[in-house]
Amino acid sequence: MSRAENQSTPGLGYDAVLLASFGGPEGQEDVIPFLRNVTAGRGIPDERLEEVATHYRANGGVSPINEQNRDLLAALEAEIAGREWSLPLYWGNRNWDPYIPDALQQMYDDGHRRVLMLVTSAYAGYSSCCQYREDIDKGLEATGLGEQLEIVKIPQFFHDRAFITPFQEALATGITDVRAQLAAQGESEAQPKIVFVTHSIPTAIAEAQGPEHVKEEFGTDAYSAQHLAVARTLMETVPEAAGLEHSLVFQSRSGAPSTPWLEPDINDAIEEYAEQGTRGVVVMPIGFVSDHMEVKWDLDTEAKETAGELGLAFHRAPTPGIHAAFVSGLVDIVARQLEGAAPQQQANQKVPGTWDDICCVTGCRPRLTARSAAPRREESRTGPSGA
Ligand SMILES: CC1=C(CCC(=O)O)c2cc3nc(cc4[nH]c(cc5[nH]c(cc1n2)c(C)c5CCC(=O)O)c(CCC(=O)O)c4C)C(CCC(=O)O)=C3C
Ligand SMILES: [Fe+2]
């Protein structure tokens, strides 16, 4: 990159972007070590690990997530190059190679000191936000770079045009497809039910998440509220969805059976809808940014089978992946952050509401907080739509 190009990069002194993700195994021999990384110290029962291992084993021991992140990196790089910015991208995972500490070391060795972190998770929550910050802290400690390298996490982006646009398109396509399936079965009178789905989390963790004004408005925890708001926005902005019923359900529960997690499970929900007369479902995986293993297994395998056994028409919508609007929208988010815009309530907010960058309230204990994504948990709510 030439000097001239470098000068066109908008900026407040960030000199690289770290794409931070979950990571996944890339062969049979990786599966168990990967699962041990994921669950270290969190009491997931062995039977659950064995069960999850079979999901990966059935796919050659390979999670699709790493390839999807390579594709996303390439797409983001192309978009950034197209804007003639000089802003190198790096990639680090929480649970598999390339690991976060190696990425931190590499960025430092390459001369970078202030880095924006873009996480492949759109919502607030322990697993989607805090755990990334904690792992950055651990990585800074492990590499001894805590004083030299500053990592600033880009806030949740579930409400941004980048994330919403691909799902609007996907919802319209899904409805059209299920209607066509129903018509082919001679059931053109039947209407599809829209089933929004996300990852279940322990109820106690969900309920501990603030802020109160979100709980009051939606009558539920912030994690569920953010998903409900996305679902509502999609239903209201996609013409094909007019008049259809929708719900928010959960998938991929783990942990001990005695611990309550958010419900209903998608399979139970589909059974109930069938009993109530639903003839077809459009499954919208709004909890995820790519079609990784949890999408492929829990939805394309299990939920699809459940629907099939009950004779329901079924369509699983794609996640944003490398949809052009997602890629360019993410780079817009990066640009606003580079320009120092308020991280929440931004220009391209498509989901109405005041969504403080809450990350999560409990369990979010990065030790080097000040140097890694100082949480913007201000009491006052600011920004264009924060009245
Ligand atoms: C909210 C959330 C997201 C969405 C946000 C985001 O997208 O980040 C997410 C994503 C993902 N979760 C993934 C995989 C796993 N999650 C597990 C376990 C857990 N997830 C949890 C929550 C979440 N998880 C929780 C509360 C647990 C149990 C306790 C714990 O361990 O903290 C386990 C252990 C075995 C099991 O019990 O399932 C595995 C293997 C993969 C990779 C898929 C691939 O390989 O393609 C991805 C993207
Ligand atoms: Fe998970």
From TrEMBL:
Q: Tell me which residues bind Fe-coproporphyrin III.
A: 63, 132
Name the chemical reaction catalysed here. Fe-coproporphyrin III + 2 H(+) = coproporphyrin III + Fe(2+)
| Protein's pathway | Porphyrin-containing compound metabolism; protoheme biosynthesis
Keyword list (alphabetical) reads:
Cytoplasm, Heme biosynthesis, Iron, Lyase, Metal-binding, Porphyrin biosynthesis
Where is this protein localized, as stated in its record? Answer: Cytoplasm
Listed InterPro entries: Ferrochelatase, Ferrochelatase_C, Ferrochelatase_N
Task: Quote the EC number.
Answer: 4.99.1.9
Positions binding Fe(2+) in this chain are 199, 294
Q: Name one GO molecular function term.
A: metal ion binding
Per the record, its GO cellular-component terms are:
cytoplasm
User: Which top EC class is given?
Assistant: lyase
Primary subcellular site in the record, as a coarse category: cytoplasm
UniProt cross-references to HAMAP family, sorted A to Z: Ferrochelatase
Q: Which family does it belong to?
A: Belongs to the ferrochelatase family.
PANTHER family named in the record:
FERROCHELATASE, FERROCHELATASE, MITOCHONDRIAL
Known function: Involved in coproporphyrin-dependent heme b biosynthesis. Catalyzes the insertion of ferrous iron into coproporphyrin III to form Fe-coproporphyrin III.
**Identification of the protein by name:** Coproporphyrin III ferrochelatase
Q: Which organism is it from?
A: Zhihengliuella flava
Q: What is the lineage of its organism?
A: Bacteria, Bacillati, Actinomycetota, Actinomycetes, Micrococcales
